[in-house]
Amino acid sequence: MAQKRRDATVGKTTVIDSVCFFTSRAGYKMRAQVYLNGYGRGEGTHVSVFFVMMKGEYDAILSWPFRQKVTFTLLDQDHQADVTDWFHAGAYPTSPSFARPTGDSNLPCGTPDFVPLERLYNSGHAYVRDDTMFLKITVDTVGLV
């Protein structure tokens, strides 16, 4: 984590892409992106997190655009004060971020000011412990088949 943060600060590696994951066995394919030194309005002041729809093998049988609620949670490893933010894709029905992907992936959607860097490192909470940070992404699957 410390080396990745240093790399982000000097612009060497600004984004970390998660492995791809699915909402279910034959569901939507997606990944997360994390900018440890922020992106856009959060650059230099916040950790930024984004969600990316990926082209998947089951796209032909899924409903488009993607309309689910997506929640980002930065885990406090002392289980006291998790940081949570969310968005509801259904509120943006014309966004290219949630349309059926035509290329490898769509435009990211998320929050450039997810958590202030000051809070991440100096809040008295264990967001980073043993050089490790945990970010959980939850996709509401209510209404999905």
Automatic annotation (TrEMBL):
Pfam family, one: TRAF-mep_MATH
PROSITE patterns listed in its UniProt record: MATH
InterPro entries: MATH/TRAF_dom, TRAF-like, TRAF1-6_MATH_dom
Residue span(s) of domain MATH: 1-139
CDD domains linked: MATH_TRAF_C
Top-level taxon: Eukaryota
PANTHER family: RE66324P, TNF RECEPTOR ASSOCIATED FACTOR
Name of protein: TNF receptor-associated factor 1-like
Upper classification of the organism: Eukaryota, Metazoa, Chordata, Cephalochordata, Leptocardii
